[in-house]
Every structure is written in C-alpha cells, then in structure tokens.
Specification:
The protein is α+β, with helices and mostly antiparallel strands. The protein is about 45% helix and about 20% strand. A hairpin with a 5-residue loop joins strand 2 and strand 3.
Length: about 70
C-alpha cells in the first residue's frame, strides 16, 4: 500500500544516517555487501555486491551522505 511504502521511506530516512544501522556481510562468493537495519533489527535495505570490503564501506558512506542530504 501507499502507507507501507511511505513507512519504508521514512524508515530508510531515519536509519540511513546512523552508521551503527549498517552491517557489512560476506557473500558466498567472497564479495562484500551491506544491509541497512531498522531500530528493531529488521533488514530494510540491501546493497549490490562489492569486490572489496573497502568498496562496500565507501558504499555505506555514500548512502549515508545521500540520505542525510535528502532531509
């Protein structure tokens, strides 16, 4: 529903500026990705795969910047 979509956007906007809400994970093929979690621990977003851990960290920083600038 539209209300659910709006709640999802609000959750990303709230949590996407908090570094502790991002979790880096290793994929089965050795690449790295990150997830964004809500305050309750639910995963609310997942990134693409990155070849290196450092690239995934830069991806998190970029998301945080973009989310912060959208407020």
């Amino acid at each position: 529903t539209k209300a659910s979509a709006n709640n999802g956007v609000a959750s990303v906007t709230t949590n996407g500026v908090i570094a502790a809400r991002f979790e880096l994970r290793a994929a089965a093929d050795g690449q790295t990705y990150f997830v964004l979690k809500a305050a309750n621990g639910a995963v609310i977003g997942r990134s693409e795969l990155y070849a290196t851990h450092a690239n995934a960290e830069r991806g998190v920083a970029t998301v945080m910047t973009l989310v912060g600038s959208s407020k």
